[in-house]
Amino acid sequence: MCPDCGRQKLLFETEKKAETFIKFNGNELSDNPSKLRVYYCPACCGYHISSKPFYGGYEGRTERMIERYYKDKKTVFDILEEQGPKTNEEIKKVLKGISGHTPSETEHDVKKYKKYKGIK
Q1: DSSP readout, 61-116?
Q2: Count of Cβ atoms closer than 10 Å to residue 48 Cβ
Q3: Helix-helix angle 76-83:103-117, to 10 degrees
Q4: Are residues 21 and 54 in the same domain?
Q5: C-alpha angle 14-18-21 in degrees, rounded to nearest 5
Q6: Does residue 106 register a pLDDT over 60?
Q7: How does residue 37 score in pLDDT terms, banded at 50, 70 and 90?
Q8: Residue 40 included in any domain
Q9: In CA terms, which of 11, 13, 27, 72 is 20 to 30 Å from 102?
Q10: Mind listing the pLDDT tens digit for each residue in 45-71?
């Protein structure tokens, strides 16, 4: 079962093996075997066969989720900026909540944040 789509799919170790399978079994898989294509599945770490055309963009949920993660990913500095802490203690509290760092690590993070913001 492919964890990306939640359906049973053939899994091939290499693109070549998938293409060879289409070559010899394409007529049993589709009325139009020339429309079959091979694609890489990052969730299975292998290759699947599809009869659907590729329109560009992302193949499955895993790739969409990875893209969304990088698009929505915020840095610690972004979160601090949104919350707008003013004092060292407020900055420490926010950093500790975000990172779970120890007090000494948090102190180091406060210094980095203040340097980043140009605060003395």
Answers
A1: HHHHHHHHHHHH---HHHHHHHH---SHHHHHHHHHHHH---HHHHHHHHHHHHHH
A2: 22
A3: 80
A4: yes
A5: 140
A6: no
A7: very high
A8: yes
A9: 72
A10: 899 999 888 766 556 677 777 677 666
